[in-house]
Amino acid sequence: HSFKHKGYWFHGKNRERKTMELFAKLIRENDTIFDIGGHIGYVTIYFSSLAKGGKIYVFEPAYSNLPYLKYNVKSKENITIIEKGVWNFNGELKLYIEHITGQNSSFIKDFYPYLETKKNAFCKEKEKIEEVLVKVVKLDDFIQQVNAVPNLLKIDAEGSEYEIIQGMLNILEKTRPILMIEIRYNHKKIYDIMKEKGYIIFDPTLKIINNYEQLFMNTFFLHREAHFRLLSELKIL
User: For the whole model, what pTM was predicted?
Assistant: First the structure.
C-alpha cells in the first residue's frame, strides 16, 4: 500500500511542472484555496507554502488515501482536511475505490483512466474495485458552513468536475475565483458554463482556449473582470 503512494510522492517534483509554476504566479500569501481531490497531499503542501498566511481546505473522500494525506500535512497549520467528496448536492454517494495506485478512485463507475491503469497493472490482486458510500458536499453550501470564500480552486476529481461546478454556481457568480480543473468528461458543458460566467480559459502554457475541443486536462480559468490585472500581467489579455 505504501509503495504505490510513495511512488507518487517521490516522482511528484517533476509532475506537471508548468501547472505548478503557474500556481506560483496566481496564488497570493493570504489566499483561501480549495483543493478538491487531495489524494496524498502533494499539491496541498505546495499550496500551503504559497499561501502561508492563508487557509487551505483539502477535500479527499477515499479512505485509502486519507492516512497518507493526514501524515503528509500534519505539520501544516494552515491546512484543513475535509473527509468528503464534492458534488452538486449534500448527502451520500457511492465512491468506486481502486487499490492499484490510489489516484483513480471515482464517483464514475467505469472511470476510463482506471481501466487504462488496470490494463497495464502487474498487481492483479489489487484490481478489484471497492464500492463505498461516502459523504459529499455542495460548495455553495459548504462556504456558508465554514464562512470561507475560495480565491482559487484546484479540481482534480476523477470525472466529477461538471457536477462540482453545478454545485458552485453562486460562487462563480458572486466571488469569481480562479480555477484549475483537470477535465475528463463533459468538456462542452464545462466550457459553456465558464464562458457564460465571463471566464477566460487557457492551458498551463498560457495559450488561450476558444473551443471546447481544445480543452486540456489541466485547464485554467480566470475571470475577465475580476482578474483583469492578473490576465494583463500574464500577457493573456
Answer: 0.89
pLDDT per position as a tens digit, 39-81: 999 999 999 999 999 999 999 999 989 999 999 999 999 999 9
Does the 2-233 domain belong in CATH 3.40.50.150?
yes
Q: Are 160 and 86 in contact (CB under 8 A)?
A: yes
Bridge partners for 80 per DSSP: 57
At residue 132, what are phi and psi to the nearest 5 degrees? Answer: -135, 135
Query: Torsion over CA of 108, 89, 221 and 103, rounded to 10 degrees?
Result: -30
Let me know: does 35 contact 44? Beta carbons within 8 Å.
yes
Strands 130-137 and 178-182: unpaired
Alpha helices in the chain (DSSP H): 2-11, 17-26, 42-50, 66-73, 112-120, 139-146, 161-166, 169-174, 187-196, 228-233
